[in-house]
C-alpha cells in the first residue's frame, strides 16, 4: 500500500478541520440523529451497484451505475417484459480520484425512446440483477416527491420507506445527498442505500454545500468533483453549460434546478442562463413553473439565517417576473411553508416558498425558530419527513408534507395551490398587490 506524503496528510487534516469549524460556526440546538447506515457491496466486481436513473428529455432515461471491474461494458438492455430485452444502448464511462481515493468505473447510458407511463425492465452491463422503472405520464396528473438533505442514517431509511409505500412519478432532491464531506467511500455507501428507490423512479437532483468537497482556501480538489461524476443531470438539453444548474419539462410543468454554491450575480453564466430559460417558457402550454435550490431565501429558523440572501437579491426578481409558482429549498433541517412572497412581503403573484431540508441527515434537526412567528410563515416544524406535490390539472395542485413518526408517515401539512397562470391579475397587471411586511 502506498505511503501518504506529509503534504497529503496535512491537506486531509486541513480538509476535515474546515468541515468541523463550519459545523461549529453553525451550531444550534439539534435533536440527536439516528445512527449512520454504512452499506457494503455484496455483488461481484462485474455486477452493477449504486444503480440510479434520471430523466433526459421527454423520451429518454439515463441509467447510471458503478462496477469494480473496469472491463464491464457500458451497456443497458431493456424492454417492457421481465427478462425480455428488445432494446439495447451503449454509453460511456468515467472515473475520478480524490486524494488517495479512486472511484470504481462509473457508467452512464442513455436509453430510449421510451413510452410514457410504462414499466420497463432493464439490466446493466450484461449481468447481475434485473431492475425496473416506470416512466412519467404524458399528461396530468403527475406526482413529485420532494426530499432535501437526505444523508444516510436510519432516518434516511425511514423516509425512503415512507416514500416508496405510495406511488409517485419523479423524485426531486434540492441538495445535500450523501454527506460524504470528502470521505469518498460514503458516496458509495449512499449509492447502495438509495438504489432501491433511485433505480425505480427518476431522481432529479441539484447540489448543496455538502457536495462542494473542496478546500475553501486552495480550491482543491475541484469543487463538485464526485457529484458531477456520479450524478450527471440533463443540463446540455436545457442549454446550460454546467451540471450544477439546468431545467427539464414534464406534462404542463417546467422545473428549474438552481445552484446556490456557484456564481449567480447578474454577470454570471447561471444568471444569464436562467433569464433565457425563463423567457423560453410558453405558459399557455406550461402553466406550472417550479424552482429548486439549496439555501433558502426565506427562513424563520435560527439555523442558517441569511445564507441565501445574496442569491435572493440577485435572482428573486427573475422568478417573480416570470411568475414562478413554487420554490423548494433544503439546507435548514426542518420543514417550513410560507405564503406567496416577493421581496420580503406577502404578494399573491409571488412564488410559494417551502423549506424541506428534513430527509434524514446525520446532523440532526434544527429545532429553534424565531419568535414570534412571521405572518408569512404558514407552517413550521422541526421533524424528519418528505413532501408530495400532485399537480392535478392546469390550475390546481395539492402539496402535502408527511412527518416521519417512526414506522408511520403522518400528513402534517396539506394545502391546495392555484397556478399563477389562472390568475388574471398576475398575468395582466405589472404592479404588485398590497404587501404585508416580512
TrEMBL record:
CDD domains in the cross-refs: FN3, MPP_PAPs
UniProtKB keywords: Glycoprotein, Hydrolase, Iron, Metal-binding, Signal, Zinc
Location of the Purple acid phosphatase N-terminal domain: 48-135
The UniProt record lists the keyword Hydrolase: yes
GO MF terms held by the record: acid phosphatase activity; metal ion binding
Domain spans labelled Calcineurin-like phosphoesterase: 144-335
Start and end residues of each Purple acid phosphatase C-terminal domain: 350-413
Catalytic activities: a phosphate monoester + H2O = an alcohol + phosphate
Cofactor list: Zn(2+); Fe cation
Pfam family, one: Metallophos
Similarity comment: Belongs to the metallophosphoesterase superfamily. Purple acid phosphatase family.
Descriptive protein name: Purple acid phosphatase
Amino acid at each position: 500500500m502506498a505511503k501518504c506524503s506529509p503534504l497529503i496528510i496535512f491537506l486531509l487534516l486541513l480538509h476535515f478541520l474546515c468541515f468541523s469549524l463550519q459545523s461549529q460556526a453553525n451550531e444550534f440546538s439539534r435533536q440527536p440523529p439516528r445512527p449512520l447506515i454504512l452499506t457494503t457491496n455484496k455483488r461481484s466486481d462485474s455486477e452493477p451497484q449504486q444503480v440510479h436513473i434520471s430523466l433526459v428529455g421527454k423520451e429518454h432515461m439515463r441509467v447510471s451505475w458503478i462496477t469494480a471491474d473496469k472491463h464491464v461494458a457500458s451497456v443497458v438492455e431493456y424492454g417492457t417484459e421481465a427478462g425480455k430485452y428488445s432494446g439495447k444502448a451503449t454509453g460511456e464511462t468515467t472515473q475520478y480520484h480524490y486524494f488517495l481515493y479512486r472511484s470504481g468505473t462509473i457508467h452512464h447510458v442513455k436509453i430510449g425512446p421510451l413510452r410514457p407511463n410504462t414499466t420497463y425492465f432493464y439490466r446493466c452491463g450484461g449481468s447481475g440483477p434485473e431492475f425496473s422503472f416506470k416512466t412519467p405520464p404524458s399528461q396530468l396528473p403527475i406526482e413529485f416527491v420532494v426530499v432535501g438533505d437526505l444523508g444516510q442514517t436510519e432516518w434516511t431509511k425511514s423516509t425512503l420507506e415512507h416514500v416508496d409505500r405510495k406511488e409517485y412519478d419523479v423524485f426531486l432532491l434540492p441538495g445535500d445527498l450523501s454527506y460524504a464531506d470528502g470521505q469518498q467511500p460514503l458516496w458509495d455507501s449512499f449509492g447502495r442505500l438509495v438504489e432501491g428507490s433511485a433505480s425505480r423512479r427518476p431522481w432529479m437532483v441539484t447540489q448543496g454545500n455538502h457536495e462542494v468537497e473542496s478546500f475553501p482556501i486552495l480550491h482543491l480538489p475541484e469543487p463538485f468533483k464526485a457529484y458531477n461524476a456520479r450524478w450527471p443531470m440533463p443540463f446540455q438539453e436545457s442549454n446550460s453549460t454546467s451540471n450544477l444548474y439546468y431545467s427539464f419539462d414534464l406534462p404542463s410543468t417546467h422545473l428549474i434546478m438552481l445552484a446556490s454554491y456557484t456564481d449567480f450575480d447578474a454577470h454570471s453564466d447561471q444568471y444569464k442562463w436562467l433569464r433565457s430559460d425563463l423567457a423560453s417558457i410558453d405558459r399557455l402550454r406550461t402553466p406550472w413553473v417550479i424552482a429548486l435550490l439549496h439555501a433558502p431565501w426565506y427562513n424563520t429558523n435560527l439555523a442558517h439565517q441569511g445564507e441565501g440572501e445574496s442569491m435572493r437579491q440577485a435572482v428573486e426578481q427573475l422568478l417573480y417576473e416570470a411568475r414562478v409558482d413554487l420554490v423548494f429549498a433544503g439546507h435548514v433541517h426542518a420543514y417550513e411553508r410560507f405564503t406567496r412572497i416577493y421581496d420580503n412581503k406577502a404578494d399573491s403573484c409571488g412564488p410559494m416558498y417551502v423549506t424541506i431540508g428534513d430527509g434524514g441527515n446525520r446532523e440532526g434537526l434544527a429545532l429553534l425558530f424565531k419568535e414570534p412567528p412571521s405572518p408569512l410563515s404558514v407552517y413550521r416544524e422541526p421533524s424528519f419527513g418528505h413532501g408530495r406535490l400532485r399537480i392535478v390539472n392546469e390550475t390546481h395542485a395539492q402539496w402535502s408534507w408527511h412527518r416521519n413518526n417512526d414506522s408511520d408517515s403522518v400528513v402534517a401539512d396539506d394545502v391546495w395551490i392555484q397556478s399563477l397562470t389562472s390568475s388574471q391579475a398576475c398575468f395582466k397587471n405589472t404592479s404588485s398587490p398590497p404587501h404585508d411586511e416580512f
